[in-house]
Amino acid sequence: MMMNRIYSACFFLVCVLAAVPAGAQGLELQLQEIRTLILEKRYPLALESLRLVARQIQDLRLESVVPAFPAAPAGWTALPPLSLLEEDEIWSNRIAAQRAYVAVPGPARLEITIDLHSPFGPAVALSFNPLVLTGDPLSRLVPIGSETALLRFNPDTGEGELRVLIGRETLVTAKGRGIISPEILINLAHGVDYALLRHTSGL
């Protein structure tokens, strides 16, 4: 059982390694060391080494989507992007990353989440149904370039959310709180590089 698990993990890493840019090639030595550990039957250490390599590969994949995040709006500061993957998702093909923007000065905050190979895509697609929208006067569909977004904004609370679904598995979500207009979310969403996300979804 453990041998099958290790070989399956190795196969996953080799396939991913072949698909990502040249920065991943520096991991080849570590994979060779893992093969040696397997031959020596040092399986727990091999598994731990595999986890570290998988995390490094996911970091490389995260770097590939960072350029898709929009620049900070005027008067706002962009914080470093963060990975949202749980520890048990490092073996998956999902990329989930978030970047926050804070107003200077002020308590307002914006967030952009990019979720490639998202498990929530089918559920989000249902929310774009016009029949569903008729039951929520705060929601409407808006164009974002060649994409269609679902926008929900509450003027009483200054909270809003905008979602763009690309294909079936790539989800871009912009959230804001303490904002005075939904146009802030719309403009931020326009700054996302959707062409890059379509390309990166294959990595």
Q: Could you provide a short overview of the structure?
A:
With 203 residues, the chain is α+β, with helices and mostly antiparallel strands.
What does this 3D model show about the protein?
This protein is α+β, with helices and mostly antiparallel strands and 203 residues long. It folds into two domains: 2-65, no CATH class; 69-200, Protein Transport Mog1p, Chain A. The protein is 39% helix and 26% strand. It has seven helices and eight strands, in the order αααββββααββββαα. It has helices at residues 2-19, 28-39, 43-65, 121-127, 130-133, 183-190, 194-200; strands at 76-78, 82-83, 95-103, 109-116, 139-144, 147-154, 159-166, 170-177. Strands 1, 2, 3, 4, 5, 6, 7 and 8 form an eight-stranded antiparallel sheet that branches. Strand 5 (139-144) and strand 6 form a beta hairpin. The radius of gyration is 20 Å and the shape is elongated. Residues 11-22 have low confidence and may be disordered.
Layout of strands and helices, then pairs:
Elements: H1 2-19, H2 28-39, H3 43-65, E1 76-78, E2 82-83, E3 95-103, E4 109-116, H4 121-127, H5 130-133, E5 139-144, E6 147-154, E7 159-166, E8 170-177, H6 183-190, H7 194-200
Antiparallel strand pairs: 1-3, 2-3, 3-4, 4-8, 5-6, 6-7, 7-8
Q: SS-based structural class?
A: alpha+beta
Straight-line distance between termini: 29 Å
Mean of residue pLDDT?
86
Order of helices and strands: HHHEEEEHHEEEEHH
Low-pLDDT ranges: 11-22
Q: How many independent structural domains?
A: 2
CATH fold-level label of the largest domain: Protein Transport Mog1p, Chain A
CATH architectural arrangement of the largest domain: 3-Layer(aba) Sandwich
Number of helices: 7
Strand content: 25-35%
Instruction: Describe the sheet with the most strands.
Output: 8 strands, antiparallel
Shape: elongated
